[in-house]
Amino acid sequence: MQNKLKIINDPVYGFIKIPSNFIFDIIQHPIVQRLRRVKQLGLSHLVYPGAVHTRFQHVLGALHLMTLAIQELVSKGIEITEEEKEAVFLAILLHDVGHAPFSHSLEFQFVKNVSHEDISLHYMQKLNEEYPGKLDLCIQIFKNSYHKKFLHQLVSSQLDMDRLDYLRRDSFYSGVVEGNIGSDRIIKMLDVYNGELAIESKGIYSVEKFLIARRLMYWQVYLHKTVVAAELHLLHIIKRANYLVENNVDIFVPDILKPFLNNQINELVDLDKEFSCCGQVLNASEMYLMLDDTEVVAAIKHWAFHSDKILSYFSKKILSRELMRLHIFDSLPEDIHTRVEKIAKCVKKQFSLEDSDLPFIYSHGTISNKAYKISNERIMVKYKDGTAKDITEASDISNLTTLGRTITKYYLFYPKECDNY
């Protein structure tokens, strides 16, 4: 018999233990193995060269933290059955399997109106059919329909194992030390209050650091100016390719990518549609499992030599890391319309484009971030007398409440050839 209780050597946590034979089987499944080919941070490696880690590493790390969190809660007398343990382990392991290539960079681009969370749920249900009923409880926890709310909050909340792992892991691989949170300390301080996840009062400083680190990581890594420019660059490539396919322009598109570039997959039920692929008939759900970063990069290499000047221009530039110009403003410039008109005029002249082509080569919009949502899923601080307060009320850092404010910035994105607009 195969020994499935493997130990994985992780650079962030050291040794990670696989908690059960069934968890091992799910890790080995193509649905999870695909995550080896999807970068955790999209195109952030163009700024931080070490940030080439994958979603696969992240879900293993989150699984590891979940085992520690469950162990801690049980030690404090919280009743968690063996069935519930395995279910919550499965939920955190599978929470990201629906991610598109390059993760958040291409969210909604291939399955147009569906979030990666909903696609993840789709694949959980597929696994539940393959292993009849063995993921029933996992799905309930993921959907927050199980009566023990704290189990869902360990998977998805403002203090979940997903965030605890990605902040520490992304900090490690990017080299941005501000994100290196004390996940061990936070997990040691976890508790349950009125059936929901809480933090012991003596852990408040660790949570304060966690919230501040999350804000810093967003503006220093996830929403770094050059990272945003690279992601917009990639987005323009996919939108132009999609436009050309829709208008019957002959471009190279791998079989696996075809259904996702012509607006045939717009909702979850479309994943059941069948297409000709690689000499076989496959449904879109099967094809999505083969859709990853490498498939997109392979297509971009071909598009760099296409006769369409916009598609070719963007493709060549991203392959050589010659990114478009991105200006970010703290507030909307009063002359924004004048600026946009001048850029449009310059682009039209420089590239000899028709008016209908202009939206494919420049854009403007907003980016935003909120480090803490003051909502129903708040981070509650539990005191020894049995009372609890929201972290913003319990903290003695006077400006912690400002982390609940949405910070919005404005951008202009255009070719460097129009720098003197």
CATH superfamily of the largest domain: Hypothetical protein af1432
The low-confidence runs, each spanning 5 or more residues with pLDDT under 50, are none
Q: Can you tell me the CATH class of the largest domain?
A: Mainly Alpha
Total helix count? Answer: 16
Query: What is the averaged pLDDT score?
Result: 94
Radius of gyration: 23 Å
Tally the beta strands.
11
CATH topology of the largest domain: Hypothetical protein af1432
Major sheet size, sense and barrel closure: 4 strands, mixed
Task: Bin the helical content.
Answer: 40-55%
What distance separates the N and C termini?
A: 69 Å
The order of strands across the largest sheet is: 3-4-9-10
Throw out a few tags for this protein.
single chain, 3-stranded antiparallel β-sheet, alpha+beta, Growth Hormone, Chain: A, 3 domains, 421 residues, globular, 4-stranded mixed β-sheet, 16 helices, Hypothetical protein af1432, 11 strands
